[in-house]
Amino acid sequence: MKNYIYQWFQNESVVSNTLAIIVGIITGSAIVLYDHLIENFTDFFFGTVSQYPPYFIILVPAIGGLLVGLVSYMFINSRRCDVEEVIESAALHDGKIRHKYAFLEVLTSLISISSGGSVGKEAPGVLAGSGIGSYIAHILKTNRERSKILIGCGASGGIAAAFNAPLAGVVFVVEVIFGELKTNTFIPIVVAAVFSNLVSNMIFGVMPIEVSYFKLVSPVKELFLYLILGLLAGVVSILLIRSMYLFYDTFHKLPIHPISKPALGGLGVGFIGLFYPQIFGVGYEVIKGVLANEFTIKLMLILLILKIVAFSLTLGSGGSGGSIVPALFTGAMLGGVYGNLVNGMFPDMTAEAGAYALVGMGAVFAGTLHAPLTGMLILFELTRDYHLILPLMFACVISNAIPSSLHLESLYTEGLRRRGLKIRGGQQVDVMKSMLVEDAMVKEVQSVLEDNTVGTLIHMMQSSKHGGFPVLDLNRKLRGIVTLQDLREKVKYGEVNQRISEIMHKNVAVAYPDETLDTVLNRLAKLDIGRLPVVSRDDETELLGLITRSDIINTYNKKIISRSQESEEK
Questions:
Q1: How far is CA 510 from the centre of its chain?
Q2: From the centroid of its chain, how far is CA 252?
Q3: Mapping DSSP to helix (H, G, I), strand (E, B) and coil, where does residue 497 land?
Q4: Which of 10, 218, 355, 364 is positioned for an S-S bond with 331, CB 3.0–4.6 A?
Q5: CA–CA distance, 146 with 95 (Å, rounded to integer)
């Protein structure tokens, strides 16, 4: 019997599915805890607002943003961990994510949502689940294939528990995280989604949105109207994506301390919420009201615009949270407005406005995340009704086609693209674009002071292999760069007492540690130079290292050799 049990647990599928069950149960429990914490934190932030003047509500999201900024600056202080990192990890890093930062991001999202941040709770669910899967893989020291499977199990469990939609959780991982379907991956993901849903929804009864049943009145004629809704949803999806990154770029350029940026964004959300509190938080109750046709066209149109702005303010300023529910919220408003209009014009051949709001939810979701199948399934599982599946499928496909043709990246992959990563079908398109400057740069940099003489520089160049050095001031701040070519062109024979500040390049091109090697290599070629100082994005006078052409080529060669060895081992 012992030998039989030992052989049983040596089976690869048995081990993977057993770990998937564990990840699913823990993730489902974490989502339940997360939901209860949101309720308690929301009461904490908004419970005493009635005791103060109405305008005090403006400060609540700002206070939450300040707390998010403090946590991020003190404990994360690097590139934030989000769904993009889960996608990147699955494609490039063998399923390894920074689970510590993933859990901290869950905490900051809890603060953002509870204090009125206009975001959703599904991304924290994905991060919590993926972090749990990654942590278990780390403890057990599993191989890279199983590590990747476990973060997928956590992600599917997070979506399944958050929306009571296990099938959508599975398809979300296949469509968004992995970009491909494999048997050895698919089965554990299904197992994790089932057990996570079992724990959160069937045992604890967590229900995100209760949706009424709708059906087609005129199946043939109405499909044309849903075609138009799909086109409109595609346009709104593009607005949602570009608005968020427009606000992100704007806040990134603001010359203020990083801690205060989420607070400033929260202040903007609070000002909007003073007049339209419906944009605060997740907004499930507002979505229910639209589906029940309780809102006027004017109010829904206003909320459509303001939700995009509030969502962009929250995430763009550095707040934390998900984008799925804001996409559903925006789609509900769009569909509600459209449904009321067509219902008024064609009352005998159209369903009630709530049906169009429901289809609009799925369509904007599909266009924003480039995930039409997940958009169909998440709405189907919410309704458990087959009557609207045809218009839902039709609108989701049409909506996805518009952003895909005009704006190649989804809300998630746009962030990866901006860092030089092109991931398609779960794979990195260009190896060079998967490697960062911080992995190739030299951190111990020889430098000279701007007050040093040319004689000192000549001595350094004679004793060093380098043909150029960063120039610093007395406070060790970057002021420029000086090269052998500067000596040849600007210094006459015998002028060894000339100061380096007189011959150095002051407007120096730089690189950042989170840029890709492909981006930096192109910059070196364009400028026809051999090296770039690496500086902090927050302070371009803070020298972090130096990167040269040879550093890039050597790192690239090592990566190719490493991948070849891994392929041989597999």
A1: 26
A2: 16
A3: coil
A4: 364
A5: 8
- pLDDT at position 9 is 54
pLDDT digits (tens, 9 = 90+) for 409-439: 888 888 877 766 666 555 554 566 667 888 8
Query: What gap in Å lies between CA 158 and CA 127, rounded to an integer?
Result: 8
Tokens 């994360």, residue?
Answer: 76
State the average pLDDT for the chain. Answer: 85
Contacts of 299 (CB under 8 A, 6+ apart): none
Provide DSSP, 86-108: HHHHHHHSTT---HHHHHHHHHH
∠ CA 87-88-90 to the nearest 5 degrees?
A: 65
452: which 2 tokens?
């040093």
Nearest to 482 by CA among 451, 511, 512: 451
For residues 286 and 216, the answer to whether their CB atoms sit within 8 Å is: no
DSSP letters along 518-541, please?
HHHHHHHHHHT-SEEEEE-SS-TT
Nearest to 131 by CA among 151, 161, 107, 158: 151
Q: Is residue 210 over pLDDT 80?
A: no
CA distances from 55 to 44, 60, 260, 281, 319 (A): 18, 10, 20, 18, 22
Q: What is the pLDDT of residues 127-149, one digit of tens each?
A: 889 989 989 988 988 887 888 89
Q: Are 537 and 460 in contact (CB under 8 A)?
A: no
Q: Per DSSP, what are the bridge partners of residue 548? A: 531
> Collapsing DSSP states into helix, strand and coil, what is residue 204?
coil
| CA angle at 103 for the pair 97 and 106, rounded to the nearest 5° | 120
Residues 533-558 have pLDDT tens digits of 999 888 888 999 999 888 888 887 77
Q: What size, in residues, is the chain?
A: 570
Please state the φ and ψ torsions of residue 479, each to the nearest 5 degrees: -120, -15
CA end-to-end span of the chain: 32
Per-residue pLDDT reduced to its tens digit, 298-315: 999 999 999 999 999 999
Rounded Cα distance between 542 and 563, Å, is 34
DSSP 352-369: -HHHHHHHHHHHHHHHHH
- Burial of 330-353, coded b for 16+ CB within 10 Å and e otherwise, reads bbbbbbbbbbbebbeeeeeebbbb
Residues 190 and 20: their CA atoms lie apart, in Å, by: 9
Q: Rg (Cα) of the chain, in Å, rounded?
A: 27
For residue 498, the tally of other CB atoms under 10 A from its CB is 17
pLDDT at 399: 94
Burial class (CB in 10 A: 0-12, 13-18, 19+), 417: middle
| Rounded distance between C-alpha atoms, residue 171 and residue 177, angstroms | 9
